[in-house]
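Let's study today's protein:

:::
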Amino acid sequence: MKRAGIILAGGNSSRIAVDKSLIEMNGERMVERVIDRVGRCVDEIIVVVGKEDKKIELGKILDVKILIDSIKGFGPLAGIYEGLRYARAEYCGIFACDLPFLNVDVVDFLFDSCEGFDAAVPMWENGYGEPLHSVYRRIPMLDACEIAIKRGARRIFSCVGMLKNVNFVPIEDIKEIDSELRSFFNVNTRDDLKKLGETELI
């Protein structure tokens, strides 16, 4: 097994006051959209949540492995750690559950870009990276997450900084695949919801 997709669905969605993973677009829940797109590029899918009730709720609608992150207070880093612990693939894509326009070709490109590296992380012109839209070699990133957690470091880039060989993929390269970079659009506010067009909240 070479590729896994780890989807993080454990956030509180406090700014939008609704569970982002269950937002519907044309009858399809957001988390299902992400699973569908990532699933076209990988051998296994793992969804990580923060609470037991969320696992039960998603378990009713998803036919994938759902994990609960066992370490509290570390946000997405804990979800990444949990997913990497369970995954069996050499390369693991990490994606947030609120990427309604996630581009399959971009996902595939990032997996290809990680070959021979410990990570492939999209990098904007201003130096901002996209660690929740990236691909990592499982063992090096898992080791880095363990060290970061022991140190009390909560930033994902604390882990990325420990990796020996990172391919920081220029956003311009990704723009050749996704000209409007819609793959990186995520839902954080009610205004973001309006941009989705016909959206039903459940």
In short: Residues 198-202 have pLDDT under 50 and may be disordered. Residues 4 and 87 are 7 Å apart (CA to CA).
